[in-house]
Fold this sequence. Notes:
2 strands, alpha+beta, two-stranded parallel ribbon
Amino acid sequence: MVIFIYSRKSKWTGRGESVENQLAMCRDYIQYNIEGAGEAEIVTYEEM
Length: 48
């Protein structure tokens, strides 16, 4: 299984801190809500 995460910088603040927060929240969600996620490849795309 391959899981893709897309994150982008906030237009409102113009800072990139939200990108790291988005990725962490997505990884937590995947870990606790998707069966077999432990063996999945997680691919991230960060738009800055």
